[in-house]
Specification:
This protein is α/β, with parallel strands linked by helices. The chain has helices at residues 133-138, 157-167, 173-178, 206-219, 236-255, 268-281, 295-303, 332-340, 349-353, 383-407, 414-431, 441-452, 465-475, and strands spanning 4-5, 8-12, 15-19, 29-33, 39-48, 51-56, 69-72, 78-81, 88-91, 107-110, 121-122, 127-128, 141-142, 149-151, 195-204, 225-231, 260-266, 307-309, 315-323, 343-346, 366-367. Strands 9, 11, 14, 15, 16, 17, 18, 19, 20 and 21 form a ten-stranded mixed sheet that branches. A seven-stranded antiparallel sheet has the order 1-7-4-5-6-3-2, with no helix packed on it. Helix 10 packs across helix 11 and helix 11 (414-431) runs antiparallel to helix 12 (441-452). The N and C termini lie far apart (79 Å).
């Protein structure tokens, strides 16, 4: 039996200061017994000779310096895992909240994970289909990549996250060989590869949590998913553990059970706010905008848990979602995220105000690894050319639109008018997409070739002539 300490000398928010302790180590789990007999979990944030700072995973309400007992459990925060975890919904601290039984664990894993040896990492180069044209064609998601979504307050990032979670899948070898979809996008669970989604929501409202749960349940996607839901009324410290619980489950499914796992984390801004609150309670010296100086390092411990490992069939692809305060891309959270991740998908308020869903702006978005997952054997031979041509033509169309506002449309020449019409159709037919619409990559490419028919053939400079002859003629 471990020693129960009654030497709590101070309580600051979710933190307890305990003196006179011995043999306590950093990140060690502990059990806090309140004077009324309630028991809560916590972990050691700081340990030095004779002193420990303990962080509660639950509310500190009812905790007192007199009568509170603390036992240090000599182990770190762990979660029990087995394949039965698929189809289940958990709280942000890992407790089942779907009415089902506790998971009978095959093993227990430390939620902080094990660092991956960089030498054992494999380069991400396989395509993941999300069913969303602006992602699949222009900002291709690569298996093992970390590709964040930069959003803003009021933009439909939660709807987009739910759609990606429902529709994301790996193409079968037969589909890639044929270069065409068999049915416009197979339903979840029909693919040859083992595919799973781990979804973690942090600091969301109760209504948002219910929305995510309904979306998974009504489409049948829950059978291949694991949900962790931390709502805004849950303790702020729980928010810090939620993404680590999700990633630990993902690592188990990917590296031990050979699943291709897509991890969606929303909203990383709420996670960072929780870090700032705990840092302030610890009286640490603040960094930019009050966030702790170790924000970059802390975010890296989450984002770098994506990837592929040599000799393992499974993979972890990560899609963190963050809302930029005041739509400011230079804010510390998106700024530091951009340094760690491989590009970003940017949601645009202007497109949203036009009624476009999803409002993904091509010029502000980038997937740095997309070239490795485009082309023959991955998607289709014309993919990279269509990507480059669509982006360039739309950028030119937007410039012409701005020019027409100043000079009038009558001042435009025929080519400018063609680009203007292209931009309008591009937004209405390529960017705009139904929330339940699951387009295959081949359907999205076909829409691109349809749009190219608005332009003179001489303007198609970024697609190979052979591809123009093959696919443009087919569309005409």
């Amino acid at each position: 039996m471990s020693t129960a300490y009654k030497t709590v000398t101070d309580i600051a928010g979710p933190l307890l200061i305990v003196k006179g302790v011995e043999g306590v180590s950093y990140d060690e789990l502990c059990e806090i017994e309140l004077p009324d007999g309630q028991k809560r979990l916590g972990k050691v944030l700081e340990a030095r000779e004779g002193l420990a700072i303990v962080q509660l995973f639950e509310s500190a309400q009812g905790a007192q310096t007199e009568g509170t007992k603390i036992r240090f459990l000599q182990r770190t925060f762990e979660i029990g895992v087995s394949e039965d975890i698929l189809g289940r919904i958990f709280s942000g601290s890992g407790r089942p909240i779907d009415g089902g039984p506790e998971i009978v664990p095959e093993k227990k894993l430390d939620i902080n994970g094990t660092p991956i040896n960089p030498f054992t990492r494999e380069y991400p180069d396989d395509f993941i289909q999300t069913g969303i044209s602006t992602i699949d064609v222009l900002n291709t998601l690569v298996r093992g990549q970390k590709l964040p979504i930069f959003s803003g307050a009021g933009l439909p990032h939660n709807r987009l996250a739910a759609q990606i979670a429902r529709q994301a899948r790996v193409l079968t070898e037969e589909e890639m060989a044929k270069g065409e979809s068999q049915d416009g996008g197979q339903k979840a669970g029909q693919e040859d590869e083992k595919f799973a989604v781990v979804f973690a929501a942090m600091g969301v409202t109760f209504e948002e949590a219910q929305y995510f749960q309904r979306e998974f349940e009504k489409t049948g996607a829950l059978s291949r998913a694991v949900l962790f839901l931390n709502t805004a009324d849950n303790p702020v410290v729980e928010r810090i553990a939620t993404p680590r619980l999700a990633l630990t489950v993902a690592e188990y499914l990917a590296y031990e059970k050979d699943y291709h796992v897509t991890v969606i984390l929303t909203d990383m801004t709420n996670y960072c706010e929780a870090l700032r609150e705990v840092s302030a309670a610890r009286k640490e010296v603040p960094g930019r905008r009050g966030y702790p100086g170790y924000l970059y390092t802390d975010l890296a411990t989450i984002y770098e848990r994506a990837g592929r490992i040599r000799g393992k069939k499974g993979s972890i692809t990560q899609i963190p979602i963050l809302t930029m305060p005041e739509d400011d891309v230079t804010h510390p959270i998106p700024d530091l995220t951009g340094y760690i991740t491989e590009g970003q998908i940017r949601l645009d308020r202007g497109l949203h105000q036009k009624g476009m869903y999803p409002p993904i702006i091509p010029m502000g978005s980038l997937s740095r690894l997309k070239a490795k997952a485009q082309g023959e054997g991955k998607t289709r031979e014309d993919h990279s050319g269509v990507d480059a041509q669509l982006t360039a033509a739309y950028a030119r169309g937007v410039e012409v639109r701005e020019l027409a506002v100043i000079l009038g449309e009558s001042s435009l020449n025929d080519i400018d008018k063609a680009y203007l019409k292209f931009a309008e159709r591009f937004e209405k037919e390529f960017i705009k997409q139904g929330e339940e619409e699951n387009r295959s990559i081949f359907e999205s490419l076909a829409i691109g070739w349809d749009l190219f028919m608005e332009l003179p053939k001489a303007e198609l400079k970024r697609v190979k002539a052979a591809h123009t002859e093959k696919y443009l003629k087919k569309r005409s």
